[in-house]
Amino acid sequence: MFVLAVAGRAKFALLLALLPATATVIGATVLLQTPTPAELFGIGLVMPALLIGGDPMPVEQGAAGRSTGLIEFTHDEASAR
Fold first, then answer.
1. Contact predicate 24/39, CB 8 Å
2. 42-59 burial, b if ≥16 CB within 10 A, otherwise e?
3. What is residue 26's predicted lDDT score, i.e. its pLDDT?
4. Spatial distance between the Cα atoms of 21 and 50, rounded to a whole number of angstroms
5. Is 29 left (phi over 0), alpha (psi -120 to 50) or beta?
6. pLDDT tens digits along 13-38
């Protein structure tokens, strides 16, 4: 999975979530296929979830500016006392 290594987990998950919607749009425009109401309903549920979702966990940036996939934990001395 070359894309996973290049894009990172968050962007890869976004692309996977958009894949059915993209396939439906291409099928409707290029192949003149009509999506079923269930397909449209499913896409209608996924799109708001993507807008509401976002990136729940901050990740550490590597030297090249790409996500390393590791969560950076900081130690607060005041809370340790």
1. yes
2. ebeeeeeeeeeeeeeeeb
3. 94
4. 12
5. alpha
6. 788 888 888 999 999 999 999 999 99
Beta bridge partners of 67: 61
Q: What is the DSSP letter of 70?
A: P
Quickly state the pLDDT bin for 65 (edges 50, 70, 90): low
pLDDT at 33: 92
CA distance 31 to 37: 18
Ordered DSSP codes for 28-75: HHTS-PPPPHHHHHHHHHHHHHHHHH---S---B-TTSSB-SPPPP--
